[in-house]
Write a structure and sequence with these properties.
By secondary structure, the chain is α+β, with helices and mostly antiparallel strands. The chain has 9 helices and 7 strands; from the N terminus they run E-E-H-E-H-H-E-E-E-E-H-H-H-H-H-H. It has helices at about 45-50, 75-80, 85-95, 150-160, 165-180, 180-195, 205-235, 245-310, 325-345, and strands spanning about 30-35, 40-45, 65-70, 100-105, 110-115, 130-135, 140-145. Strand 4 (about 100-105) and strand 5 form a beta hairpin. The chain is rod-shaped, with a radius of gyration of 36 Å. It is found in: Cell membrane.
Length: about 350
Amino acid sequence: MDSRHNPVNRPSARPVVRLKTAYAHRFGLVCAFRLDRQGGGEALQWADLDADADPELHSAQGPVWIHLDLKHANAQRWLSTHSGIDPLVVDALTAARVTPRFEQRGRSLLLILKGINFRQGGLPMDMVTLRLWSDGERVISGRHEPVRAASDLQRSLVKGQGPTDVGDLICQCADLMTQHMEELIFEQFDEAHRIGHLRNAKPTEDLVAELAHLRRAMIRMRHFLGPQRRALERLAASHQPWLSENNRERAGEVVHQCTQYIEGLDAAQRISEITQEEILQRSTEKTERRLFSLTVITAIFLPLTFITGLLGVNLAGIPDATDRWAFLLLCLFLGLLVAAQLWYLRRKGWL
């Protein structure tokens, strides 16, 4: 980052959290804590941050975590004008559509993660996003929709069981975001097995609809898990001085966990593909049997239709029309013809 646009990256600069009175408003601030470095933290409000930031909020008082609701104009305005973050990073933090990524410039880093949507009435596969920026002494995070990982982190700080420093906070966020995917991925894996077991007992149309819904959900999950694993790998390999070796090891464990989830999704997708192939094969076989039955029926009745049609169009009249036994003899002949056809088809193995 250019130090002219990012004063927090200048060696002589201290992290500044300036909140003017106009921004000392509860809207836009989900929560804020000053960590006590022992697993707890002091809860802060806009007004508290404003008072503490006059003129500076020094790191000696403890690192600060500020979690914002990015849908509110106050939060976006504060990020743009008072956070001291590079404008390009602010754009990445506030963008409506983002994918998991990791970027670092100087002493600061940007981490964007996807997580499960636990909001009531929402679909789990409609994933939510947590955006984090840190310079080692502040963590500024934001979301558009509620993120359970941030709520869990907030509760752990209240109980005194939370992160002790900035690196620990970021790694805990990554860990929680990944852990919350486990239940959904296992559900999808079990659902793929369930549909596979029902392929011979349930109507094909219902199974195809369920399978299509499941595969769409898995594709969406897989679409974000790949970039998320790469972002976490870059976090684990980061050489930021304020990231400890324990932080990197924990990030590596999250990468391993994410890899397991990807492998589980890939296995579930393979199971669903095999199931779909079997369902399509069964449907094709059923269609072929029906077509074969129609073909046999056509083959049997075609000669009968030809003979009766030929008799019907005889301009000189139907032969022996006045003979009382003619119709019975014709029926007997047609019956023998059908019997001969059935014998021939059975001999050829078509029946």
